[in-house]
Amino acid sequence: FTVLCSKKYRFHEADVPVGPGGSMVRVRVAASPRNQFYGKKCLDFASHALLCYSRWLGPYPYPEFTVAESYFGWNGNECSTIVMLDERVFGMPHVAQEYVDYLLTHEVAHQYWYNLVGTHGFCETWMDEAMANHLCQRVMTEKYGKNNALMT
């Protein structure tokens, strides 16, 4: 169970249909006031990724999913029901939107490949990383076209 908190967070939220019968997941992005551009963009990116993965792999089984601006030494990391993106990702130039989309879409894939289909994170990292990369590329191809500039 992972919790991040800050009195500075501003939240962007949406309900996303992820399964039969209209089941919904609340997608939430927590970003600092200075990074609202990517706060809003990440809501769109995460929602789209969850829609694709739910269609391809089955409904996202949890009622909530959160993306949180945080601080650590690399770009992003997944935990169950939450993805943390480094504050430097949220502060990237707006021209980097496709990269941020790629990064977040990859991390959302880990909600399925490591989290729901468990692997040994230390000894079998290749298993969930391979699936996350493959699924992320499928989303990017669907969104930006085959052989798009980001993927070549």
Task: Please tell me about this protein's structure.
With 152 residues, this protein is α/β, with parallel strands linked by helices. The protein is built from five helices and five strands. The protein has helices at residues 36-57, 87-90, 97-109, 111-116, 125-144, and strands at 10-17, 24-31, 64-70, 76-79, 82-86. The chain has a five-stranded mixed sheet with strand order 1-2-3-5-4. It starts with 9 loop residues before the first strand and ends in an 8-residue tail after the last helix.
Summary keywords:
5 strands; 152 residues; five-stranded mixed beta sheet; alpha/beta
**Basic shape:** globular
Q: Helix segment count?
A: 5
Strand order in the sheet with the most strands: 1-2-3-5-4
In what range is the share of β-strand residues? 15-25%
End-to-end Cα distance, whole Å, is 36 Å
C-alpha Rg (nearest Å): 15 Å
Could you tell me the mean pLDDT? Answer: 89
